[in-house]
Amino acid sequence: MSESEYIHKSHNVSILLYHFVCPAKYRRVVISKAVDITMKEICLEIEKRYEIHFLEIGTDKDHVHFLVQSVPKMSASEIIRMIKSIIAREVFKKHPEVKEKLWGGEFWTDGYYVNTVSKFGDETSISKYFRDQGLEKEYVVLHQSKQLVLF
User: Fold this and answer.
1) Tens digits of per-residue pLDDT, 91-143?
2) Domain holding 69: CATH number?
3) Both 24 and 41 in a single domain?
4) What is the extent of the structural domain holding 21?
């Protein structure tokens, strides 16, 4: 897929990354190689229409991992609701055999896992940076890596 980048809007600059895990309904094994390819094609189409960028997509037989970048105006629940809805509709259209394995006409479970991902540090290093604000320390910004280093 692609690498995250700064998204510049009129009033903000952001790098918002989300890791989603979406299980298939009833944890059924419905994600074949053909369905995997279809899902990735659908995600490329979603990127063209919405401010959602798929950085990685990893499928297993009964669930999918998405690493997604989006903008602050969209909540994590809005993003995943859109992704799940469009993928389910298109997979059922292109792979009717999947619908036969899932009674009730739903592709995904109602729930999902979401976690934010940081390009510039983990929770511990960011917390330390916050705690050290205002202390008598020398701060240096490394322009090549765009990471703040504390001395």
Assistant:
1) 999 999 999 999 878 999 999 999 999 887 888 888 887 788 876 555 544 44
2) 3.30.70.1290
3) yes
4) 7-119
Report, in this order, helix, strand and coil percent for the chain, each rounded to 5.
35, 30, 35
Query: 49 and 92: one domain?
Result: yes
Angle at 74 between CA 71 and CA 77, to 5 degrees: 130
Q: Identity (one letter) of the amino acid at 12?
A: N
Give Cα 46 distance to the centre of its chain: 13
CB-based contacts of 137, cutoff 8 Å, min separation 6: 150, 151
Terminal CA-to-CA distance of the chain, rounded, Å?
A: 36
- Domains identified in the chain, total number: 2
Do the beta carbons of residue 109 and residue 24 sit within 8 Å?
yes
Same domain, 46 and 91: yes
Q: How far is CA 32 from CA 8, 66, 77, 107, 130, in A?
A: 38, 17, 26, 14, 45
Contact 13, 4 (CB under 8 A): no
Closest C-alpha to 82, from 5, 14, 32, 18? 18
Q: Which of 39, 22, 30, 4 is nearest to 120 (CA)?
A: 4
Tokens of 113: 């896992």
